[in-house]
Amino acid sequence: MGSQEQGLSGEEAALRRRVFSPNRLTESPGLSVWQLIKKQLGDVMVTILLGAAGFCLAAEKYTDAITIITILLINGLLGILQEIKAHKSLKALKKLTVPTAQVVREGRQITVCAEELVPGDLIVLHAGDRVPADAVLLRSVNLEAEESSLTGEAAPVSKKPGVTPPDTPLGERTNLLFMGTCITRGSGAALVVATGMATEVGKIAGMMISEEKPELTPLQQTLAGMNKFIVSACFIICAVIFSLGLLRGEGIFDMFLTAVSMAVAAIPEGLTAIVTIALTLGVYRMSKSNTIVRHLPTLETLGCANVICTDKTGTITKNEMTVREVFCGQEKYALTGDGYAPEGKLFLADREMAGPTPGLRKLFRAGVLCNNARLSLENGRWVVHGDTTEGALLTAGAKMGIKKEDLEKIYSRVEEIPFDADRRLMTVICRQPDGSMAAFSKGAPETILPSCASIWSGSAASPLNQASRKKILAQAEQMAGKAFRVMALAWKPLEDYGALTTAEAENNLIFCGLAGILDPPRPEVKGALAACQSAGVKVIIISGDHPLTVKAIAKEIGLSGASGNRLITGQELDGMDDAALAREIGAINLIARAAPDHKLRLVKALKQQGHVVVMTGDGVNDAPAVKEADIGVAMGINGTDLTKDVSALVLTDDHFATLVKAIKEGRSIFANIRHAIRYLVATNVGEVVAMLGATLLGMPLPLTPLLLLWLNLSGDGLPAIALVADPPDPNQMNHPPRKVKDGLFSGVLGKQILRRGLFIGLSTVAVFKWGLGKGIPVARSLALGVLGVSQFFHLFDCRKDEPSSPIKLLNNRYLLVAGFLGLLMVLAAIQLPGANRIFLTRPLFMGEWLVVWGISLITALLDDQGFLTAKKPFGQLRGQANV
User: Which of 29-33, 347-351, 415-419, 533-537 has the lowest mean pLDDT?
Assistant: First the structure.
């Protein structure tokens, strides 16, 4: 491949990108314009209207035919434009989740878009990473990969450098890593040998390219079922109107066209599309607020969330680790400096030290050698690549002149025993400058201390007695009480390295000291927690840190349960059976010294009690809990690929406040969908009531077929889309979450729709009857005016769930434009002479318009008063969060 240990140069990588295709799988093509047109023509309502237009042509009703076709063309054009916009939005959102890869270029490890990889690139992989291309292993440390997506075998496969015959089955090629598989354990470096469609998974994908058919979300499926019911009911009503018209002597042609137009106008065929648009807009808005939605149904569940289980580090806190205190040789030292810049001073009490003591040198050397992170100066700012806790230890060492790049020249790493949740420590075996071997370990004090037999004091090791152990643990508790993450460091020389087991290598260690690492809370967390409390959402902090550290952070950010904070440790959780946990879980809001399996058990216990659980995670071991939660949330910065793959949401900034914003957005999306349904169905009910009422009373039909279609065009499409684009209500987080069992029509929504539909329909019949004394054209204009103006009023007042809420007019300019455009279309049908000839209307005088506006305003006020007499406003019917 022509690669070196330094990796490819930028120039060579660019040259190979021109030779090889991009490192991505070929996607199925989107729908062409012709396919979009066919999709629009395939709609049942369009088919019926085309038939009606043909019927008009056969009957030589050319004006009616041309008008119907024109309305169809406008509707079809709007539908095609919306499809194109949705497709572009989804493509833009896919770009937000483009995978990255760690690659060595010109001797530097950098992060690049995975698409930019070329054969010959040297990539670096750690547990949780998704393999970005097919590659051959050059070196590995306890590396295992999960290849079920390729081989079907769920058990991770151990990987190591070597050579396998070309005809070896995929599942047995232990020296190769395959694109799309996931590293579950260990780390390694590999050489890319195939990219994109040339990879093993690419060969499979080439056989399967087809048009993707996205599945409907549960909400869309519910609406599709509701649409079928409404369609059946409307066809029955239309048949009644058609039959009654014939009995009354109306012409069969006119009644057929009326029945068809009535069906088209009354059926809210756009409901499912409106939900799709609402969800798409929600996804787009959330992406602008640093949240990537991976599964659309999540948006429907977010509004029900009543428990958030969150990590502390990096989510509640800044994840900017800095060593502030060091306990070494029975003395406590302070270290200054912020961030990862290797600049700071060392103090003992109030006295500045000229340099580190021999004991401190041992401590910082252990912290720098037992470390996989790296520091680099990028654009004038020091940044850490890797774990931030390890970055803090590197920075502290560099402040004391103990730099990783210098140590690596004289200490060569021979083996790494990675950190895992069971052992709770990490160890590396290094060859020292004199050729002897030594082990360097770091971990939690309660894990490291029992493994230590001696303590480094002065220039030699001495036995670690019980008094010293108590003093060390007391110092660790003091640090933890200041919200420090406490890391213990130890080492020991190895005389017979080759014959040692892992347990033996990590036993009888020499204790070096404690490092107190500060990770301050994010400033916006307090406000986000307050929003959760007012919204009835319980927050549980789960941390691997010391109990005192977790308590100190909770106090600082203002977290408090209903009866104060109840903290348990992972060990205490292990001692509880399921029944005990079920009894206690309502009071618990802090968990310290937690392991990933504790998260999974907690999620299951909460779900069994009926809670809708949000779980955050970043590491490989968090994936089961994230997957089990109702809403799994992965961290975009520090999260592993495996955790992102099983998550429903990805926070691109890892902020807790961003998660709370996502919940608010989820509530807003559901509320906006309800508003759109309320608007569409109520106005359609009004039209049906008006037509049916006039027919039953023996009056002429208030609206011609063309007027029904015109009213449908002016009032259904754009206004409903604008409604679902409403920004979140500032009070959205001031009420409890809705219950999962609450459907779209829960609370008083069904009553609101029927009441407003009756008011609109009956007032239209009344004004039509009054106008008949002036002639049918005037009566028809009056009926159209009342329907149009009532529709306009309803567009704005259906945005509020509480009658006391003010109607906001200026915070959604799209709604204003859509509303006034619909109103202008109604005015044009009434007032323009050319429209009068087409729609058989007559211009209204000022007094008649005053009647139209007055009747419409009265019905709106009556409806609002009816809302006040409901037993409970909608906001109180969403259910209480019993947490």
Answer: 29-33
Question: Would you say the CATH fold of 292-317+522-654 matches that of 10-18+98-206?
Answer: no
Whether the per-residue pLDDT at 134 is higher than 70: the answer is yes
In whole angstroms, give the CA distance from residue 291 to residue 243: 55
pLDDT in tens, 742-757: 767 777 788 888 889 9
Task: Report the CATH fold assignment for 10-18+98-206.
Answer: 2.70.150
Secondary structure (DSSP) of 714-750? HHTHHHHHHHHTPPPPTTTTSSPPPPTT--TTTTTHH
Amino acid in the structure at residue 872: K
Catalytic site residue from 121, 311, 622, 654: 311
Active site residue 801: no
CB 118 within 8 A of CB 103: no
- What string of H, E and C letters represents the secondary structure of 447-470? HHHHHEEEEEECCEEEECCHHHHH
Query: What's the Rg (C-alpha) of the chain?
Result: 34
> Distance (Å, rounded) from C-alpha 622 to C-alpha 599?
8
Rounded to whole angstroms, the Cα distance separating 131 from 125 reads: 8
Take residue 386 and report the two structure tokens written for it: 């890797």
Contact 682, 798 (CB under 8 A): yes
CA-wise closest residue to 773 among 708, 700, 846, 843: 700
Which class is domain 292-317+522-654?
alpha beta
- Give the 3-state secondary structure of 555-595: HHHCCCCECECCEEEHHHHHCCCHHHHHHHCCCCCEEECCC
What is the DSSP code string of 625-680?
HHHHSSEEEEETTT--HHHHHH-SEEETT--HHHHHHHHHHHHHHHHHHHHHHHHH
Helix (H) / strand (E) containing 75: helix 62-96
- Which CATH architecture describes the domain 322-518? 3-Layer(aba) Sandwich (3.40)
Residue 207: per-residue pLDDT: 53
Per the model's pLDDT, the better-predicted residue between 262 and 566 turns out to be: 566
The CATH number of the structural domain formed by 217-289+662-875 is: 1.20.1110.10
Query: Measured in Å, how far apart are the chain's first and last C-alpha atoms?
Result: 59
Single-letter code of the amino acid located at 407:
L
CA distance 304 to 666: 9
Strand partners, 429: 415, 439
Extract the tokens encoding 737.
Answer: 């979450």
Q: Which amino acid is at 219?
A: L
Domain boundaries, the chain: 10-18+98-206, 217-289+662-875, 292-317+522-654, 322-518
Q: What is the pLDDT, as a whole number, of residue 636?
A: 82
pLDDT range class, residue 158, cuts 50, 70, 90 = confident
Please say whether the beta carbons of 49 and 68 come within 8 A: yes
Distance separating alpha carbons of residues 225 and 227, to the nearest angstrom: 5
